[in-house]
């Protein structure tokens, strides 16, 4: 292959370059990976209803993330440990997003310190948060994110425990040296010594020694609506986005608790296997919130036409997870830029061929459902 021409090409190129354990960590979903597969297939059950003869000589994809302008409504979802894909890791992803002027969500489990990721540009940076029982640790991360210029906090709510990803279990996955979870000091331990001893985990202290499984064991599994959102509101004035909502019931609770946005997401099929594809959950969430907060979606977006479909179903914008990692693994910053450019070009072409000249013109009437799911060629 001389030149990757679509997102799937980047997947193949990255796979050929990455060590097996890193590839497996990025690629895998939970258990039988039904949701992972359905995330992509569900887009194929929607068909576009194109309008013609509408002067599509100028296509405008300008959009915004929480009011901050963006060249198009495609952002980067938070994914942990990007230095395994390329030594420039999160820095490279950030540079690409800055060039592209969109939005990057940085994972708590970044392999680059959060302060070194934000670029002085018009791009938006949001910080993804996992909350710990040791709340001062979380409060400290939030204050650092505020100082560094992050414009929103994205609380991931679908991960009270980490889903079981079989390839990681088989590989006994561990973040390889020299990489470390750079937002935490080396000696930092989330559980106290007595908690660790009680959990039988006396020697699993250092963050850079942690496995995926032990990371999950440090999350606060006691989080509830009534406790954690007010706590967040008390420690920060940044907008709060909840990532991992899949039902109208929880969407309404997000509205009730004054959240600023939702990302409809099943964590790229990595958490509870057999939940709905995120694009299938999107309509009920959009209908429930009735415009009272911004609704974004991630999961399975591999084409500009997928972005178009998500917007037609009411998403304000979309986030991509693995495609950015594939671009990064293939060719660092340039690879991520190419991935964003291809998706942007494909979105523009879809809009032109569907007769939509601006993002605002993309609406539910642009789609219909099809029972026929074409086989992937
Ligand atoms: C390797 C990997 C690591 C991830 N790490 C995080 C994370 O640290 N925090 C988080 O909220 N979501 C994380 N996610 C989920 C993504 O933010 C996103 O929901 C998902 O990847 C979207 O699906 P896609 O990969 O099909 O685009 C991760 C996903 C992948 C693939
Ligand atoms: C504790 C979870 C680690 C990062 C993550 O969210 C993922 O691998 O999906």
TrEMBL record:
It holds the Pfam family FMN_dh. CDD domains: alpha_hydroxyacid_oxid_FMN. PROSITE patterns: FMN_HYDROXY_ACID_DH_1, FMN_HYDROXY_ACID_DH_2. Gene3D superfamilies: Aldolase class I. It comes from the Eukaryota. InterPro entries: Aldolase_TIM, Alpha-hydoxy_acid_DH_FMN, FMN-dep_DH, FMN_HAD, FMN_hydac_DH_AS. This is Oxidase FUB9. It comes from Dispira parvispora. The lineage of its organism: Eukaryota, Fungi, Fungi incertae sedis, Zoopagomycota, Kickxellomycotina. The gene is HAO2.
């Amino acid at each position: 292959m001389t030149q990757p021409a679509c997102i799937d090409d980047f997947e193949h190129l990255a796979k050929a370059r990455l060590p097996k354990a890193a590839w497996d960590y990025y690629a895998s979903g939970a258990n039988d990976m039904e949701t992972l597969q359905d995330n992509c297939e569900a887009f194929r059950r929607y068909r576009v209803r194109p309008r013609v003869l509408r002067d599509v000589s100028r296509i405008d994809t300008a959009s915004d993330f929480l009011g901050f302008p963006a060249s198009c409504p495609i952002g980067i979802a938070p994914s942990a440990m990007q230095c395994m894909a390329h030594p420039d890791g999160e820095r490279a992803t950030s540079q690409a997003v800055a060039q592209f002027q969109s939005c990057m969500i940085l994972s708590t489990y970044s392999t680059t310190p959060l302060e070194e990721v934000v670029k002085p540009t018009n791009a938006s940076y949001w910080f993804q948060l996992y909350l710990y029982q040791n709340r001062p640790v979380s409060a400290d991360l939030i204050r650092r994110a505020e100082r560094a210029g992050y414009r929103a906090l994205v609380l991931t709510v679908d991960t009270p425990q980490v889903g079981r990803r079989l390839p990681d279990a088989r590989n006994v996955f561990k973040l390889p040296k020299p990489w470390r979870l750079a937002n935490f000091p080396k000696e930092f331990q989330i559980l106290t010594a007595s908690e660790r001893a009680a959990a039988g985990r006396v020697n699993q202290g250092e963050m850079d020694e942690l496995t995926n499984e032990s990371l999950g064991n440090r999350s606060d599994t006691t989080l509830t609506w009534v406790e954690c959102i007010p706590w967040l509101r008390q420690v920060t004035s940044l907008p709060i986005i909840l990532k991992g909502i899949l039902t109208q019931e929880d969407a309404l609770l997000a509205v009730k608790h004054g959240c600023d946005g939702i990302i409809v997401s099943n964590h790229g099929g990595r958490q509870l296997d057999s939940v709905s594809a995120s694009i299938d959950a999107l309509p009920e969430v959009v209908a429930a919130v009735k415009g009272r907060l911004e609704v974004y979606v991630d999961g399975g977006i591999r084409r500009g036409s997928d972005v178009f479909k998500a917007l037609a179903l009411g998403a304000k914008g979309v986030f991509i997870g693995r495609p950015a990692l594939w671009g990064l693994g293939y060719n660092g910053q340039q690879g991520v830029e190419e991935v964003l450019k291809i998706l942007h070009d494909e979105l523009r072409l879809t809009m032109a061929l569907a007769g939509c000249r601006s993002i605002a013109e993309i609406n539910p009437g642009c789609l219909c459902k099809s029972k026929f799911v074409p086989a992937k060629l």
